[in-house]
Design a protein that fits this description.
The strands form eight sheets. The protein has a seven-stranded mixed beta sheet with strand order 1-2-13-8-15-6-5, with no helix packed on it. Strands 17-18-21-19-20 form a five-stranded antiparallel beta sheet, sandwiched between helices. Helix 5 packs parallel to helix 6 and helix 25 runs parallel beside helix 29. Among the domains are: 107 residues, Monooxygenase (Up-down Bundle), CATH 1.20.1280; 199 residues, Cupin (Jelly Rolls, Sandwich); 177 residues, no CATH class; 159 residues, no CATH class. The longest helix is centred in the middle third of the chain and has 20 residues. 40% of the residues are buried. The chain starts with 23 loop residues before the first helix and ends in a 10-residue tail after the last helix. By secondary structure, the protein is of the alpha+beta class.
Length: 979
């Protein structure tokens, strides 16, 4: 049946012939009539526009529900495939997004009217769409107002304590005169700005289109510009304002711009728009300066969940989500019902005024008219520890920070009152399958007029005299003391990633030594730094190394394992992914080092030498060190229940081949035999190496000359060549035979290939099997990663990735008779650089390296740098050498094709084979090196695609994966030594 999406009246029930209104709902909805209208509307949002069009033909009530503007607004925003062009209604805008044929874009016919149907839910929503807020500026004025406040007074009275509304801070800003809708339109009309987040992807609209939308819309929760990237699209705007003197201390400014979390926003919105109830990310503080218009603010102190709001805390990773009404709905439906004692602190912000929102405070904002504002979040000495607390692993403390005592189970309070800090058993749910806690604000008791609000809630819940305190000592009682950033799940809602968090603390430690006492407190909260410092001290004592100095207390860099630089030594404690993975990491690294010296590979001169290795055990309050060279199974490990017979038959029981099986097992390809190793969680493998001199490339990147960078590319090419030529250990004793225990695909060519090429698959089956497992649920994984990966490409990824990656075996045949070592993690923080010798001498490198000669002078000229060492071989694996090009090209070269070509010139090894006449693979894409590299990027455990679409921003508009492949990896296809 052909359906007119704009208007269709077919099969609609007729009106009552007697003229008496009839109850249409039961007749029109059938069995669905038992569902309230709000549930029906939520169900409709999950359908496609075509399904909605068909459903609208079912009955008159369905016609009404399926033509409601809020429904089409959600459908449009959830299916955005380009920037939005508002077409006068959300239905028309959604159809425009779908690129429907012109015949469907006809003028709307006269609206249809049906009697016998009413809906309070729809009426309230319609009322909110057309309500006027002209007289809504009255408030109780309970936020203090100040003028010309001094920094000392602000820090003493307000910072970290309570909100304040300040005038005079923006009097001299050019923005006060130039930030009008007319002037912004004239200058930035064609620029795209990001809108308030109403879907899983970033929504953009040209400024001229947004102004048009803003003037004609009648949405109950209008979109507003909320753009953290406005400095990129309109950099001149950054010159129109300055950070007020009260808020200039910001610890996040030590991070590079691309690693810094979003911190400043341009905000432009119409009447009725605004921000619903929330606590600012990472418990940062914020200032918000209003340029034009009026905003109404409501605020509650930390731990006071507003009425109508529900806090969701994920018990696995601590992610926090908040459900609640829109700002307008809360002011209309909830605020009037609150008794005076439960009303929020509130104010109406006027043009030129700046409001300060302290860390942890709940706030809700409603635009009373068209407003333009700028806001920034910051971290300073007053909230630094709270920010570290919020990003520390676990969920209990996050619930308490936002919901106060309502987040706690009743059985916990007796222990809390006795100052028992370990709350593991008391605060955990009795239901082990429960993954999420919902913390809801309850209505106050009628007899609580003369009592403190918190006490009232406590008594209502049987919580005794316990009071919530937004204090580090109180909140830290709810931390999971044994968890740390190195091996805990990371909350996706955290403002920065795990690596960035560690890098941030390390950069603060180096760059602001006067803050080290404060930084150490934060690191102990976020990283369990005190425990790791204690452990590295035990290792130093056992091996007779110098004790770590005060300046050496913090783990260095941003790696996945704590690393300490103590005197001339580097000490790495393996913790990533738990004990078993750590043993494989150290065991493989020790096996690799042994092989380097056995074959006298030149690569050994560019890797830090091993001085000691072993296992640290914490038992009965004491630490014990067990030296271990990677051979045999240490006694301390033998009792762990993940040890199998296969470990006991080879020289390196935790070497690379068993590690490959372990990786395959974790990918879901083999049955897990390791059991629960939680009982061994107080065991840590470690390694001590010689400390490299010089500087990490990541710290030098922006200061190096082009010649130095070319030298680095050539250096990496030769060292990776040496790595990939290194013989792999025999797989006979540990590698599974084909099909014996590995789950293999059956409806494809894998078994045929395995039968014909048993000598190849015996070395590649784990690699291919793991890739095939990673292919499952690929779209869901990419969707979870979200922006900046384009949604339209996620939809096409299943077509791009081969159904069975065993097809790669044909390509490997002529080149990869055996697997190669793969470093997997050659990134900018794993390369050491040293300066060329002084005295005006020229530093010559062998001609075959392709290096550019560097010159150093003692006449004050800039010294040249050359690479000296590659670090961190704990992620060693065996597989396709192209895998090593991914971190090198994306992280070190930042996508520069000139550096990739220089690398390949020095590398010189074949990476594939040309197609022959007898080739059994019909799909030509398998013969593109670029295709293999792109497939590996998509299937990677880490969000490599996020890095790609951040480096090549133009690829966000790509229509196919082939476009992305050609842009990122096309140079590989011109690599003459590649075949």
């Amino acid at each position: 049946m052909e359906v007119n999406l704009e208007n269709n009246t077919s099969e609609l029930p007729s009106e009552s012939s007697a003229g008496v209104p009839k109850d249409r709902r039961r007749e029109a909805l059938g069995n669905l009539c038992v569902l309230p209208d709000e549930i029906l509307c939520e169900i409709l949002i999950s359908l496609t526009p075509l399904d909605i069009a068909r459903l609208s033909c079912v009955s008159s009530v369905m016609y009404i529900l399926c033509n409601e503007e809020p429904l089409w607004m959600s459908l449009c925003l959830n299916n955005v495939n380009r920037h939005i062009e508002y077409k006068g209604s959300w239905k028309k805008t959604a159809l425009h997004q779908l690129d429907l044929p012109n015949q469907y874009h006809e003028a709307c016919k006269r609206p249809l009217h049906f009697d016998g149907f009413n809906s309070l839910f729809l009426y309230r929503r319609l009322y909110r769409c057309y309500t006027s807020l002209n007289g809504f500026s009255f408030d109780r004025g309970t936020v203090e107002r100040k003028e010309n406040i001094y920094l000392e007074e602000f820090q003493r009275e307000y910072d970290g304590r309570k909100p304040v509304l300040i005038s005079g801070l923006a009097d001299n800003w050019p923005a006060r005169k130039s930030w009008t809708t007319e002037q912004l339109l004239a200058k930035y009309g064609e620029e795209k700005f990001r809108l308030s987040q109403r879907s899983s992807q970033k929504i953009t609209m040209k400024f001229k289109d947004y102004l048009s939308y803003m003037q004609i819309q009648h949405d109950e929760d209008p979109l507003y510009i909320f753009d953290e990237k406005f400095g990129n699209s309109a950099p001149d705007l950054l010159n129109d304002y300055s950070v007020p003197h009260l808020f200039q201390e910001d610890y996040f400014d030590i991070l590079d711009s691309e690693k810094r979390p979003p911190f400043r926003w341009l905000i432009i919105g119409p009447e009725r728009s605004g921000a619903s109830w929330h606590v600012d990310p990472a418990l940062t503080s914020a200032w918000n300066t209003l340029i034009s218009g009026r905003k109404r603010w409501a605020l509650y102190p930390p731990g006071r969940v507003p009425s109508g709001v529900t806090v969701h805390v994920n018990e696995e990773d601590g992610d926090v989500n908040i459900d609640g009404p829109s700002s307008l709905q809360w002011w209309l439906d909830f605020y009037p019902l609150l008794p005076d004692a439960e009303k929020p602190i509130e104010c109406t912000q006027l043009p030129g005024e700046t409001i300060f929102v302290p860390s942890g405070w709940w706030h809700c904002v409603l635009n009373l008219e068209t407003t333009i504002a700028v806001t920034q979040n910051f971290v300073n000495s007053k909230n630094f520890e709270f920010v570290c607390l919020d990003m520390s692993p676990g969920y209990r403390h996050k619930g308490v920070c936002r919901a106060g005592v309502l987040a706690l189970d009743e059985g916990s309070f007796e222990d809390l009152n006795k100052n028992v800090l370990c709350l593991d058993n008391k605060l955990s749910s009795s239901d082990p399958t429960r993954k999420e806690k919902r913390l809801k604000m309850c209505q106050p008791l009628e007899d609580s007029k003369n009592e403190n609000d918190t006490n009232s809630l406590s008594k209502y819940h049987g919580l005794g005299s316990l009071e919530f305190s937004y204090d580090l000592n109180f909140l830290a009682m709810f931390l999971d003391k044994e968890r740390d950033h190195y091996n805990s799940l990371w909350a996706s809602g955290n403002c920065i990633g795990q690596r960035e968090m560690r890098e941030w603390l390390w950069k603060l430690w180096l760059g602001r030594p006067w803050l080290r006492d404060l930084i150490w407190k934060g690191a102990c909260i976020a990283l369990n730094a005190g425990k790791w410092f204690e452990r590295v001290g035990e290792i130093c004592a056992f091996h007779g190394l110098p004790s770590p100095l005060h300046d050496e207390k913090l783990p260095v860099g941003m790696g996945s394992n704590p690393v300490y630089l103590v005197a001339d030594y580097a000490i790495k404690i393996f913790v990533e992914d738990g004990l078993e993975a750590s043993l494989y990491g150290l065991g493989t690294e020790l096996e690799f080092y042994s092989l380097l010296h056995k074959v006298n590979s030149p690569l050994k001169n560019y890797i830090p030498g091993i001085l000691a290795s072993g296992i640290l055990l914490f038992e009965n309050g004491l630490y014990t060190v067990f030296p271990w060279d990677g051979k045999c199974i240490p006694e301390v490990i033998a009792n762990c229940n993940f040890i199998s017979m296969k470990h006991k038959k080879i020289d390196y029981p935790f070497g690379v081949w068993n590690k490959k099986q372990f990786e395959c097992q974790n990918a879901g390809m083999l049955p897990c035999k390791s059991g629960n190793s939680g009982e061994c969680s107080l065991i840590w493998p470690y390694i001590v190496t010689k400390r490299c001199s010089g500087e990490i490339y990541a710290e030098l990147r922006d200061t190096l000359s082009w010649e130095d960078t070319l030298n680095l590319a050539s250096f990496l090419g030769e060292k990776l060549r040496n790595l990939h030529l290194l013989p792999c250990p025999s797989s006979d004793a540990s590698l599974l035979t084909v099909g014996e225990q590995i789950e293999l695909p059956h409806d494809n060519r894998f078994m045929e290939i395995a039968a014909d090429k048993i000598h190849i698959t015996a070395e590649w089956n784990l690699f291919i099997s793991t890739l095939n497992r990673k292919r499952k649920d690929l779209s869901d994984r990419l969707t979870k990663w979200g922006d900046p990966i384009p949604c339209k490409l996620i939809e096409k990824v299943a077509e791009y990735i081969p159904h069975d990656l065993a097809e790669f075996l044909d390509i490997f045949e002529e080149v990869c008779k055996s697997c190669t070592w793969v470093h997997s993690d050659v990134m900018d923080d794993n390369i050491y650089m040293t300066q060329c010798s002084s005295g005006g001498s020229t530093y010559h490198l062998p001609a075959e390296d392709g290096y550019v000669n560097c010159y150093s002078s003692n006449s004050g000229q800039k010294h040249s740098w050359h690479p000296s060492h590659i670090l961190d071989f704990s992620n060693l694996s065996i597989g396709d050498p192209i895998l090593d090009l991914i971190p090198i090209h994306l992280d070190i070269f930042r996508g520069d094709s000139r550096l990739l070509k220089q690398f390949l010139k020095s590398y010189g090894l074949a990476l594939g084979r040309k197609k022959s006449l007898n080739d059994s693979v019909e799909d030509n894409r398998f013969h593109r090196l670029s295709y293999r590299a792109m497939c590996y990027c998509i299937l990677h455990d880490d969000n490599i695609l996020g890095a790609i679409f951040s480096l090549w921003k133009e690829l966000k508009m790509a229509n196919s994966w082939e476009e992305v492949e050609e842009t990122v990896w096309g140079d590989l296809n011109d690599y003459t030594a590649g075949f």
